[in-house]
C-alpha cells in the first residue's frame, strides 16, 4: 500500500468511509490502516477522509469519545490545509457524534458551519444530520419536511436515502400513521440492502418499534429478535435495540424483562458517554419504576431524565419525562398545584408537536392530579381531551382514553357513562388479549384493564346491586383464560428436552451432596428464557370461548348450590352471594386480616408436615385450628349460609391459598370465575382411559397407585422408571380420569414453569398447556398444585386454571405441602366415591369426613385438598 500514489490512497480513504457506513466492524481496521498510511505519506486529504471513516466506525460501536478525538484531529488538519469541502464533511460527522453525546448546541454549530462549506455533493448528508437533530429535539414537522425534500432527489446516495426513509417512518408512527410508516420502512429496507448490514439492522429495528406503536406486540417481538440478530452479525452494540425492545416488553407487561433490558441499555450508554440515548434509557427506567409502584425511584429517574432532556433542548422528550414525574408524585400521594401545571404544560407541548399517544398519558395524569386537588373543572378538561385524542389510537392508548372518560363521567356522577366506558374498554381489551399467542401474555395483558375494572366495581358498589356487581366481576375475573390458542410445541420441543436434561443433572448433583451448581442453574434459566420467548412470538391467535352470563342463567347451572364470588377494592373485601331466589352483597372488612390468617395457616400446616417434638406439633395444630376458625369467621359466617348447602366459591386473586373445603361443612367447589363453572358443567365426560401415575422420590406414591389400580377396571398404571414425561403426556391425552401422585413445585417467579416431577424430570405447566393436555377429571396428589400466582386485573395462573382453560371439568389439588403416606387412604376413599358417580367435590367431602383429624398428617390432608370445577 505504501508504494501507491497519494491519489490512490485518497480513493482508498473514500472507499473506507463508504464501507464504514455500510459495515463498521469490517471497515474499522481498513480505515485505521489508511490513516496510518496517510500519516506516513503526509497525504493530508486522505488522512482527513480516513480519520472520518475510522471515527464513523467507532461511533457505530458507541465509542463516541474516541470518535470525537479522531474528528477533532481531522478538523484541525482540514483547516490547516484549507480543505474546505473535506472540512464540511467532517463537521457533519462530528455533528452526529456530538448529537449522540448530548451536545446538541455543539452539533448545531458544526452543522451551521458545514452548511457554509458544502456544495450540492455533500449537502444530502448535511440535511440528514440536520433533520435528525430537529427530530430529536421534537421539531417533527420541520424534520419530516427536510426528509421528504431530500428523498425527492433521486441523486442522493442510497445510504442517506435509506436512513432518511427510516427516520421519516418513525415520525409517521409518532403521528399515528402506522400503515404509512411500515410501507415506508419496506422501501427503506430495499435501499438498505444496497448499502450494507449496519443500515439493514437499523431499518429492521425501526420496523419492530413501529409495530409496537401500531399495537401488534407479538409480531414486534419476532421483529426485534431478528433485528438483534442483525446487529450482532454486524458487530454492533445492542443498546439501541434493547431500548426500543423495552417499549414492547412494557406493553406486554413483561416488566422484569423490560427492567433488565432497560438497565443493560442504560449501562451501555453511560459507559460510552452517549448521553442522548442515555437520557431515553433513564426515562424508560422511570416508567418501569412507576409500573412497579416504586414511586420514589420513578420520581428520581424521571426528574433526572427531564433535566438531561432540557439541557439537550429536546422539548418532546422533556415533556414526556415531566409527565412521568408528575404521575409518580401523584401516585406517591404528594401531588401539588405545581405538578398539575407541569403536567398540563407537558400535555399541551406533546399535543402541539402532534405526538398524540404521549399527549393522552400527560392529559390523563393532569386530570388525575386535578381530581386529587379538587379542581374538577380543570380535571374534566384534561380527561375529556385525553379521551378525544385516544379515540383513533392503537388499543392500549384507547384504553387510557377510556379510563379518562370514565373518570370524567365519575366527576358528574354519570354512572351509566362510567359503566359504558369501562365496559367498552374491557371489550377492546378482550380482543387485544385474544390476539396474544400465549397463556402467560394474556394473563399479563389483563393489567391494562385493571383500573377500568376497579372503576366499574366502585360505581356498582355505590348502587348496591348484587346481581349487576356479579356480572361486572365476571367481566374481569379470569377473563384471559377464556381464550385458548391451538396446542403446539413447534419450535420449543428441543428446549423442553434440554430443560429436563438440566433438571436431571441438578437432581444428580443433589443426590451427590454437591448442591446446586451455579452453572447448571444459569443454563436452566437460559433455557427457560428461550422457551418463553418462543411462545411469545408464535404466529397463532387464541380462540375465545366467551360465556354470556346472567344471574338467572347461572342459577340454572348451580343445581341447588349457593355461589359466593369474592372481590376486593381499595383493601376492602366483599362477597356476592347467589342463591335460588336472591343475590346479596355482603361487605367483609379488611382484606389484610384475611391474608394474615391465611399466611398463618399455611405456615402452621407446613410445620405439621415436618417431624418435630410433640409440643411443637401440638402448638402448630392449635395455631392452624385458630386460623381456620378466624378465616371462617371472616369469609363464611357473615354470609349467613346454611351449613348443609354445597358451595361454589370464586376467590379473588388475593385469596388463592385459602383451604375453602375446611371452612364450610358441606361440599365446596372452587372455580376461577362463575363463567368457568358454567363451562365445566357443560363439558361431557369422555370415554377415555383411567390413568394412574406415580412419580419418583415419594415412598407412598407407588403404593398409592397400586391401591387405586385395584378399584378401576384396566387402568393405565405408571411408576418409576416408566413414568417419564413423554409416556405420561401420551397417556393423559384424552383420559377421562387421571391421578398423579408426585412431587409438585410452584414457581411464584414464573408460574408457567411450575412442575410435576416425573421419572425423567419435570412436566411443566408450560408443556401441559402447549400440548393441550386436559383430562376430563384429574386428581393432583402433589404439593402446592392448587396454589396459583395472582396477576393484576384479577387473573391467576397455575395448574388448576391452565387445565380448566384447556378443557378439564374437575380437579382435586392441594394448596400446600401434604404428607405422602397419610394421603393414600384419603385418595382411595376419594376414588371409591367417584366410581359411585359422585362429583369430585362430593367425593372429596365424603373422603375427608372419614379422616382422623387428631392425627397431624390426616389433619393437613383434611385442610389441604380442594375440589375445582363441576365434574
What distinguishing features does this structure have?
alpha/beta; Serine Threonine Protein Phosphatase 5, Tetratricopeptide repeat; eleven-stranded mixed sheet; 38 helices; elongated; disordered N terminus
Task: Assign the CATH class of the largest domain.
Answer: Alpha Beta
* Shape estimate: elongated
CATH architecture of the largest domain: 3-Layer(aba) Sandwich
Determine the structural class based on helices, strands and strand pairing.
alpha/beta
Radius of gyration equals 32 Å
Instruction: Output mean pLDDT.
Output: 91
Please mark out the parts with pLDDT under 50 across 5 or more consecutive residues, or reply none. 1-5
- Output the CATH topology of the largest domain: Rossmann fold
Could you estimate the helical fraction of the residues in percent? 55-70%
Biggest sheet character = 11 strands, mixed
Figure out the total of helices: 38
Q: Numbering strands along the chain, what is their spatial order in the largest sheet?
A: 5-4-3-6-7-18-17-14-10-8-9
Measured by DSSP, the beta-strand proportion falls in 5-15%
How many structural domains? Answer: 6
CA distance, first residue to last residue: 84 Å
Number of strands: 18
Short description:
The chain has 871 residues and is an alpha/beta fold. The protein has 38 helices and 18 strands.
